[in-house]
Please model this.
Amino acid sequence: MAKRIAIIGAGPAGMAAAYFAAEGGAEVDLYDKNPVIGKKYVYVPWEGCELTHEGNTEDFMENYARGAEFLTYSLDKFTSKDAVKLLKKLGVKVTTNEDGVIIPTNGDTQELKKAFEEKLQELNVNLCVSSKVQEILADGRKITGIKVHNKEVKYDKVIIATGGAARPKLGASDDGYEFAKEFGHSITKPLPAISEVETNEKLGKFLSGLEVSSVAVSVYRNKHKHLERNGKILFTDHGLMGDAILFLSGIISRLSENNKVEISIDFVPLKSKEMIDRDLVAKSSLNSSHLVGDILKEYLDPRLLPVMTRFYRIQETKPMSHITNLERKSLVLFLKDFRVTVKRVKPFFAAFYTSGGVDVEEINPKTMESKLVKGLYFCGEVLDVDGGPGGYNMHSAFATGYTAGKAVSRGAKTKKAKKKSSASKKAAKKSDKGDQQEAEEVDDQSSIKVA
Ligand SMILES: Cc1cc2nc3c(=O)[nH]c(=O)nc-3n(C[C@H](O)[C@H](O)[C@H](O)COP(=O)(O)OP(=O)(O)OC[C@H]3O[C@@H](n4cnc5c(N)ncnc54)[C@H](O)[C@@H]3O)c2cc1C
Model:
């Protein structure tokens, strides 16, 4: 008998899990409380849909502020190349942009939703939309089914792919956390991530819209440095965005609960404070005709100069030969350690992701099964995994969905189906030598099987 699987949540994680579970021979019902699948990103009029990113597992691991170790297995088994292969098999055309991000070629996120929908139907997955799962049923520590539309339905296994708490208007809810808690799972407090960081300093007045590349951003709580990230920052009306800030925003959310958090920006990460100081000393010699502003323009975008005037009270028109030692030290600080204080990370209504979720210590990383309850699985944003911008969160949703889908369907194929699959592999090999590699993958249990 094929295994009966319920998947709760038809976002990227649930869709991937459904795909691999059904393809592995399981009978799958995919539930979503929304009237459509994949609502979170599909219905956003946002052309920057980032599906995955170029790179190997090590590159990927550097892009998860939390949960990287836990993800290693899934990232190894389902690489960005595998994601691209899967998307191509689904009929979604993808392109790699100049930053290495893999995006839909025509910028249409609907295409992915439609492709998944068609493929899942082809694989006989029941798409149960407008169906909010109310409860997960168990007999002691073993899953027995779910409750939906006030009815109990039996299943062998249940995958929770309910996503995180970001963007309630797009369907985000606490359901996954509540289900997990019912079974004794610990939840790391969900907090907004990939979200604008608002600062107490009103920089937007001078700098709103200015993007600065190749800076190093460090996060300090109570004067203790926690994390550093290199990348871009973008000054907004009320604070900061840009990939370096967005990557850190989940950590900043957590650190700034009841604590003073400072962000330090190093505009010249390739030169030490000492090197810059020596350079400024040389340029402030008595016969120097340099102005402060001219010198600083050698290091940073001139649009940042009004900030120096305002924060350090040094006029850009002041001759370098007239600056005091203290002022020179201030210039070094401005270039290497410009500090702003965090007011807040913009809440869930504006965040793109959730930092926190189901504690991954209680999940088997090779199957996504709960270590506490047999037959209960998790994948996607509901887990305490915190990826940066650039396609890493969509990828971890796909990759953990892959691992969960594979695990729930393990052993699900009947002997007859296996025989059929082996025969079609031989046929594929014969008919198209060029496609040999793909045909081999169909029978390789440890790699993706795409229909
Ligand atoms: C506007 C926006 C843009 C984004 N863009 C990107 C991007 O370009 N690249 C990237 O990597 N990441 C992006 N993200 C993040 C990414 O979309 C999420 O991390 C990803 O969707 C998580 O996938 P998931 O399947 O775990 O959860 P979700 O996509 O949130 O799906 C969970 C699903 O579960 C359903 N559900 C919840 N509870 C129940 C229940 N009780 N019963 C039935 N169904 C339920 C919800 O309706 C929802 O459809 C974006 C996020 C947002 C908000």
